[in-house]
Structure formats: C-alpha cells, structure tokens
Amino acid sequence: MKKRYIVFSLILAAILILPKYFSLQVRGNIEQYIAEINKINGYNVEMVELNDGWFSSNGILKVNISFAQLGANSDLPWAQGNPVFLVDFISHHGPVIFTDGFDIGLFNLELLYKGDELRTKLNWPENSNFYDLTIGQGLLGGFDMEDHIVPFSVVEENHNQNVVFSGYQGEGEQSSGGFSYEGEMGSFLYTSDEGKFEIVDFDIAMESDGEIYAAMSGEIFESTAEVNVNKLNVLTVGESQQSFELDELSFSVSTDINEEEQFMDVAQNLEIESISAMDYDVTDIQLEVETNRLSIPFIKAYQEFAKSLSGMDEIEMRQQSMSFMTDSLLPLLQSAPQVNISKLSANLPEGTISGFSNNQLVGIDALPDATANPKFWIDHTVSETELEMDKDVANVIFTRYVTNQLQLNPQTAEMSQQEIELIAAQQVPNMIEGLKLQGFIVEKDDKLLLHFSLKDGNAVLNDNPIPLPY
Length: 470
What we know:
Blueprint: H1 2-37, E1 43-51, E2 56-65, E3 84-93, E4 96-98, E5 102-104, E6 107-113, E7 122-123, E8 131-137, E9 143-149, E10 152-156, E11 161-165, E12 168-175, E13 178-192, E14 195-208, H2 212-216, E15 223-236, E16 242-258, E17 263-277, E18 280-295, H3 296-307, H4 314-334, E19 338-348, E20 351-361, H5 374-379, E21 381-390, H6 391-407, H7 417-437, E22 442-444, E23 447-455, E24 458-461, E25 464-466
Antiparallel strand pairs: 1-2, 2-3, 3-6, 4-5, 6-8, 7-10, 8-9, 9-12, 10-11, 11-13, 12-13, 13-14, 14-15, 15-16, 16-17, 17-18, 18-19, 19-20, 20-21, 21-23, 22-23, 23-24, 24-25
C-alpha cells in the first residue's frame, strides 16, 4: 500500500511540477523557431509579449515581411512597403496536455492570426481566426502540425467583383527521418464584369530528408513535391469573349544529392489531361525536364549572394550579378551540368507532336579569357535534339506563326483577321517545302522530323554535317 502511495505521489508530482519546467523549455523552443525563421530571407519575427504560466503561456509575435528581400517586383502594388502582422500564440505545457482532448508531449503551440484588419475587405464568420497553426512537440523531439485558412468571400460592389474561397487546410510531421506535409483547397473563384478565374480541387504534398526550418533558410536536402489541380478555368469578356479551361494538372519536382561529388539532380514532371482554349483542345500533355549535376557549392554561394541584392537598383544589381558569375561560375561548369528535356509530347486535333533535347557542358577546367566567345561554348557542348510531328500539326504551328508575324507588319494593319489568316495559309506550304529543300526537316510517312546533334564542335542536322561560323 505504501509503495502504491509513493508511486502515485511521484506521478502526481510529475504532472504538477514538470509543466513549469517545460514552460522554460517552451520559451527556448519559441526563441529557437524565431531564430530559424529569421534566417529566411525576407522574414523577421520578434516576440513582443510573453506571459509565462504554470500549465500554459501566451504572448504576441510581430511578423515583418520584406517583399524587396523576397525578390518581388517593386512595380506591383502589393509589393510596396513592409507589412507587419501581429500573431497571438498560446502554449500548453506537457507532459500531460489538455486542449481539445488528452495528449502526451513537451508542448502544444497554437499560433493565431485574427486578421481583424482584413475584415474591411474580406468576409468570414465572426469569432473565427483568419489563419491558425498548431504545433505539437513530442517528448522525444519530433513534432506534428496543422494549419488552416478560413473560408472567406469578397464583395466589391463598386467594381462588381466577387471572390469566394473555400478555405485551406494542411498537416505535416517532422521526425528524425525528415519532414512531410500535405495541404488542400477545395475551390477559389473570382468573378467580375471582365470575366472569371476559378481553381477547383488544389492539393500539395511534399517530403524532405532534412529539417523544415533548415530547408526554408536555404539548406539543401533530397526532397519531393507535387501539386495537383483538378480544374482551372479562365474567362475574359471584352470586345470578344475568350476562354481557357484546364483539366487534371499534375506537377512534381524531386531532388537527388550526390554527397561525394557535391552535386544535385533536379527532375520536374508536368502532366495535363486536357487544355481547351477558344474551342481548340490539346490533350495528354507531358513535359519532363531534368537539370542534373548542379554544383552544390555554387548553389550555396548564389544563395548568400542573393541576400546581398536587397535594396540595390537595377544597374547595381546587374553589375554585382556579372561580378558574381565571373567569380563563381567555374565550379558550376566543372561539374558538367546537364539540362535535358527528356520528354515532350501532346495530342492535337490534327495529330501528335513529340520530342526530346539532351544538353551538357563537358571538359571545362578553366574559363576562357572572353566568356562571350561562342567557339568555347560550342566546343564544350554535347547536345542531341529530336522533334517529330504529324504534317497537319506542322501546318497549324507554322500557320499560327506566320499569322502572328503578319499581324505585327504595318502593311497588314488595314486587313481583317480573315484576310491575314488566308495569306498565312497560302504561304505555309511553300515555307515547309523550303525547309525540306534546305535540309532543316525531313518528311517520312506524313510526319515531319528533325534531328540535331553537336559534339566536339561538330554539328549534324538530319544526318548531314553543317558548317558552323566559329
């Protein structure tokens, strides 16, 4: 009986005493989070108020955002000045945490942005925060998180503009193995007298081998990210009505790091089920781009350099950029970087188009005295490009190209669109025949083909060597 009493007393003492000890840990963790966020270019966070309690603490954070440091275009209205946001926080101390339920952990931190100043433009339910973020840190170090943006609407009667936003919710986890996050938005709709813009079913997912705050401040880790959009619709109303509809877009990015050679590979993949513009449909669009063997020392040097550009005018920025590239370009080139369009394909009403283009710089151990010397770059480039399209697809592409050129010609300024398109349709067959005669393209089975390669300074187009001017 006495032993049970002692055990019960120890447990009770832990529940009552440890929260105060953890409250000191919480303050240190918040300060650590702030320090990590402040390493991110364009953000500055400071704690302006902290009220320590035994089982919980609360306070206020001031968040300052510099659009100039984020690299935003200074001509954009929203990029003017440095907006400041006050964010309330509440921390519940462990080891036993009572919030919406019962949990075990070091602390549970809630960040709440009320957004009252936004209510002059946005409408959302009373007693709801515009944004909230909850972070729960476990006793052994990892944490999980959830964040939400409240559904809202905007009504601008003077301009007949309306916005309806379904809200956003996400959740993530940081463990010893890395960070993962998933988020989703049901819909966003903007309408006005000029047209509409709509996104339906947006979601994002990402994973990183590293720590989230380190990644946000510029550390490089192996990672994957994917964005999916079910529908995107754009309608413009003016002298003529134009529409653009996109179905089932998926875009993914992955990075792979070679620690031994200190380079990084980046793979990007874009897939679109269909695009419809002005009653013209393109389906099964695929684009795969690989940027391989990127020098990690160069990337880190550029990250530090980019931070120094804040506040510079355009001329000074250009001068500093040229100086940086001169001093730091060699490590990037020594790694033999590649830029590959490994796959390009689409289905048009008139047929299909497909191709690839692989390009690499090789054998560069020193920069030439004149980096603008074309022969240096030609001699160190290995390239192969292939393009194949149905002949009817080529007719469409060339017709649109010639039409655009004619529209820019002052001599056709008085012509109607129909007259311009008629002239283009008459010119295109002769243009294609001329390209075939010159060897730029070849025809086979109602398809037009192009194959180009460059190696050791020798260029070959459709199996025919071509002289280079350098």
